[in-house]
Amino acid sequence: MTRPTIELRPAHEPPGPRPKTLAEALVRPQFIALATVLLVNWLLFPGFFSITWQDGRLFGSLIDVLNRAAPVAILAIGMTAVIATKGVDLSVGAVMAIAGAVAAAMVVAGWPAGLAVAAALAVGLVCGLWNGVLVTLLDIQPIIATLVLMVAGRGLAQLVTEGSIVTFADPVLIFIGTGSVLGLPTPVAIALLLMTGAALLVRRTALGLLIEAVGVNRSAARFAGIRSSALLLVVYAFAGLCAAISGLIVAGDIRGADANNAGLWLELDAILAVVIGGTSLLGGRFSIPMSVVGALIIQAMNTGILISGFSPEFNLVVKSGVIITILILQSPLAASILQNRRMKRGRT
Amino acid sequence: MALLKQLALGAGLAALLSTAAQAELTGKVIGFSQIGSESGWRAAETSVTKSEAEKRGVELKFADAQQKQENQIKAIRGFIAQGVDAILVAPVVSTGWDEVLTEAQEAGIPVVLLDRGIDASQDLYLTSVASDQVKEGRVAGEWLVSAVGGKPCNVVELQGTVGSSPAINRKQGFEEGIAGAANITLTRSQTGDFTRAKGKEVMEGFLKAEGGGASICAVYAHNDDMAVGAIQAIKDAGLKPGSDILVVSIDAVPDIFAAMVAGEANATVELTPNMAGPAFDALDAYLNDGTVPEKFIITESKLYTPADNPQGEYDSRKGLGY
User: Fold this and answer.
1) Which residue numbers in chain A have pLDDT < 50?
2) Is A61 on the interface with B (CB under 8 A)?
3) Could you tell me which residue ranges the Periplasmic binding protein domain spans (chain B) (predicted)?
4) What is B2-130+273-299's CATH number?
């Protein structure tokens, strides 16, 4: 008697081979969407793709898109890992504000910048661990567990800055926000480095597989010998760390820690970037680089709206229209329609 | 309403200046229900209110509502129960005040609204002290008209949060201010959400879209924070804010004076955090000889330029908690 073979993929993922050739890899809704948005930007503003060399760094609208996308992209890198475990982290925006506030308050108080940066990153890690503890040890649903810090965190940041914008002139923090590395803005360099590092770490080791396993079925993963609680702690701590890095960037960018506004609503942009990147909120298969592409799409759209000259009342309408289109293109329904058409074409 | 505000302006100024008879409030107990601390300006308003109370010998009972109306209503009921002499309220929203204000009225306690109006019968409060946001925009526009002196000038605008009343009014006022000058054109307008980060990002976009900033002669920001962000963007683009591109904004927070000292900002219109001063003056007159003040006391929208000792302004404002 033969046992029936089991399909090991989660039910919500359409079966099919992963893209193999470069051309196939590029024909993804995300890349098409990004290309379309960039093309529309170019039509609205012909100088969109022009990049010049100014004051020892690249200068142009395209560089702006990369630079402004970096904070959300970095959040999205951490968020991808969290969402892959079937969780979500709503607190990253507030953690950004805390990290920025801590770093700014420390340099203003005369501490060396290196220590301030280290402290901000440590605070991010602690915030992430706090979320992780609530999710694993206390078994609170991630959306509720991280909501706690989302609300309370901004209060903590305001406590550190005493409600005002703490401005600083520290060259190290300013470099993190507005400096340049090999001609690229520092935030872009940091995001690239983090993306490459994280993607290699999860794909060249078993870590990515373990995260996916926990996301698909936490108890099954535990029975299979994965220490899912420890893994979840690490994932939330990583998201907290990413948020702290983003927080340092946005504080350095405006040379001040604005506890009221830094990172406000950016958790939603980060979640959106992850979803646009194709990672399901139900956990499981994920892609860090595609989440970064998601962040780029969002920012390309924002920059496009800024240079288009539309009146600001249209900003959110345009944005939601584009996002709905992208999500529809990515939906299982659209995928099956596309596949049917391909199969028909194959037959005739 | 706007006309009424105009009419009340003179009276407001008079109230602002009549600080002569201020000893009369000594020993009075006044409750102050503040919205919370959502911005630096709010924090400054709180600290100015406290110092104004101290100056007059008023015992101020302070309640922070943390952005919630129910907390404000609780605080007002608390003040009524304590039998205070008067109540100051900075209302967080415009509706839902009738009941609690009626209770205050029945207890014979005068209520003064600070910096925001409400949708309720005007009989329910003694007076309201607020700025005229349209006028703030108009003062900024008029400054620009005189500053460019007939030369053609393309202005870009950084709006506040879309749909918020300061954004709508400050835009309208500025357009009124430049309406007579055909040489001034508003070429681009986008929202910077009243924040530095967004102000900088939007200005970056404007600079790219306007030939690297070559065709921009001035930037008008609905608040100083966005202007501070825009100044950084202008510097990043290799231009000099303050001379290559004029910078005019509203609020008069300390950091814009720091920018003026550095020659990077040209003008700001003050939204005074001292709403309590005129309120105390009105209460003073009312409690002592029953003088009923104007219903709408409008604070002055004073223009500050680098000629107005920005370093001194910076130093005197820095400690206010902005």
Assistant:
1) 1
2) yes
3) 30-288
4) 3.40.50.2300
